[in-house]
Amino acid sequence: MSTRAKKVFLFLTIMVPFLFYCVYYYGRMLKNAPYKFTEFKSFTIQFGSTDSLVNKYDSETGTYQFLNNHDSLVTKTVGLNKNDLLYLHRKAADLGFWDFPSDERSRDTVKYNGVKPVRFIIAFNYQRKSKKVIFDARYAGDPKLIDANKQLIKEIQHVLADAEEKQKK
User: What is the C-alpha to C-alpha distance for residues 99 and 105, in angstroms, rounded to an integer?
Assistant: First the structure.
């Protein structure tokens, strides 16, 4: 057998089945991906001290409830458009939200300087699945995980503030 025939035989017996397997395997993985934006329903965020999560937003209803600078409870309707929701979905995917542990609470609930720790509950809801993460600001875990949580929270609050500003105009 010539060297050219050997190369063709090697290619056909090893590479072609490998390529078919890759197309089959990754095609099914992408088809069955659990968190697709096309199946996105809503997201919610709640935050506040560990005993009272009075600051809330629900994208399904657009209800935004928060404490203002004068400690009075304000309820507004802040709607997010599809681009804002897509941005948050992609940001959550980029930061690895789907791989976060669902319970990131601090064991220490004692007040520091008279202030209880801040707790965040973030939930993304889809047609087939949902992901909910409970995160304490004083969670003592992997620093990369803590940074990713804080960055996602910051992005959500930024998008909400921008949407609120757009409604004022």
Answer: 16
**What residue segments make up the domains of the chain, in order of their start?**
1-32, 39-168
CA dihedral 136, 103, 43, 29 (to 10 degrees): 140
Contact yes or no for 90/165 (Cβ under 8 A): no
111-151 pLDDT, tens per residue? 566 667 788 999 999 988 889 999 988 888 888 999 999 99
Report the CATH number of the 39-168 domain. Answer: 3.30.1560.10
What pTM was computed for the model? 0.76
Strands 118-126 and 63-67: unpaired
- Strand partners of residue 77: 63
HSE-CB at 155 with a 13 A cutoff on CA atoms is 20
